[in-house]
Design a protein that fits this description.
This protein is of the alpha+beta class and 194 residues long. 46% of the residues lie in helices and 15% in strands. The protein has a five-stranded mixed β-sheet with strand order 3-4-2-1-5, with helices on one face. It is elongated and about 75 Å long.
Amino acid sequence: MSSEAAPTETAPSEPQARHIIYCGVCTLPPEYCEFGGTAKKCKEWLEQNHPDMHEKLYSEEAVAATLSTLSVDAQKRAAKDSQKKEAKAAAAEAKAAETKAAAQVLIKRVERNKRKYVTAVSGLEAHGMDLKKVAKEWGKKFATGSSVTKTASGGEEVVVQGDNSDEIFDWVVDVAGVPEGNVDCIEDKKKKGA
């Protein structure tokens, strides 16, 4: 009986798949997060979601072991580089928050014919919204046609058939979380041809 049990206990001949964890912030393996621009956020994410790996990579012993292999000059350079990266990431984060706070959303009601209107909304992409998804959601919500079109200035806007400016204003403020001060409603009259 022991001769029959022995072959099943040996290691499988085909390679086994590895389970690799990827960072939820920068999508790199956690060992490489320090090379991205979001090392601080990556470290916090790893501590929340995978504390065992966080302990393995960022414990005092692990940091001391990696630093002990470097020369004194290299240790100084590494500390200086990490401070630079952290300052750069913090500055980029502050700038992104500032531009988001200053970004305006324009809701224009444009007259097509005598009693037909379209509502054009621009500036949503600055608040991190996917215009195609927003256009699809508004099309369903208002039971009209809506699409993403390019503007003359090179940007993109969502165009919704009908006069839905009040409902869109409420949606942008309530659902998207854009402050009321950053949303402007404009009424456009189409110029008559000469």
